[in-house]
Amino acid sequence: MNQTALLRIVERLERLLAKLPEKIRRPVLRELTPLKELFLQQRPPRFLFIGSSKIPTHRIIDTLFTAGVPEQMNVALMPVHRWIDWDISGHGTISILDARDAGDSAAAPVEEDLKRQSPDIVFLSDDAESNLEKPAAAKSASFLLHLPYDFGGALDDANVIGVCFGSEKRAAQLEEALKTQPAVRDRLLKVIRFDEMHSAEVRGLLSVLTEELPNQAKIEMIRISRDREAQHHVAQMLIKS
User: Among the listed ranges 7-11, 135-139, 147-151, 205-209, which one has the minimum average pLDDT value?
Assistant: First the structure.
């Protein structure tokens, strides 16, 4: 039986459960819903890139997700400002929308794609050159690294990871500056330094992503990260159910 057929069966079961008393319905759904999301609604994690375009897309992906693996030089296949799936070393797939430096002409397709599929995590890149201390910059759209659309509208509850291309001091300044922004403050997971992303740091980032992603995207990220702790957690869920 394929995944679609199983999903339909589960959805029918949910409709039947809706007719039962809450005392019976709630504990069953508590077990059923995560399993449905994890295994029957699986999809690639969706990551939105905004901010500085100083570093090419393929290099960011290779550095953050494929440490120790030779670069995937398929940059020519990358459509501009659209969701595209990237294979990560044969282990799994991530979906990337690179909206960095999207000008007026690209704003419409970016907004269209964001309405169609909202991101799970936003990677906000800082080129280490703009002045973070200027009040005007802190309050303007340009501080959000030239984001050409409303940050809150199409992004739902997407969390943010700052990516600093500068020094440790600059990364700390970026983190403090982001924490002053209402659009980012409550969404900020961490700020990372691009030049420090070695194997251990990449594993730590992938672990954070696995924990923060919605259930539908967790399994694919676990395949990519090969995080044993996350694998064990999912296995325990299966055993309990």
Answer: 135-139
- Cα–Cα distance, 231 to 91 (Å, whole number): 14
Characterize the bridge pairing of strands 92-98 and 46-51: parallel
Pairing relation of β-strands 159-164 and 83-88?
unpaired
Counting every residue written for the chain, the total comes to 241
Residue 198 structure tokens? 């070695």
- Inter-residue contact 225 to 203 (CB < 8 Å): yes
The model's pLDDT over 117-171, given as tens digits with 9 standing for 90+, comes to 999 999 998 887 776 665 433 433 333 444 444 444 556 678 999 999 989 999 9
Q: Are 67 and 59 in contact (CB under 8 A)?
A: no
E strands in 42-185: 46-51, 83-88, 92-98, 121-126, 159-164
Spatial separation of the C-alpha atoms in residues 120 and 99, rounded to whole Å: 15
Write the CB contacts of 85 (distance below 8 Å, at least 6 apart in sequence): 44, 93, 94, 95, 96
Residue 25 CA: distances (Å) to CA of 9, 13, 22, 153: 17, 11, 5, 33
| DSSP character string of 158-181 | -EEEEEESS-HHHHHHHHHHHHT-
**Vertex 119, ends 146 and 140: CA angle to 5°?**
20
84 burial (CB, 10 Å; 0-12 / 13-18 / 19+) is middle
Helix (H, G, I), strand (E, B) or coil at 190: strand
**Burial per residue of 33-70, b for 16 or more beta-carbon CB atoms within 10 angstroms, e otherwise:** eebbbbbbeeebbbbbbbbbbebebbebbbbbbbbeee
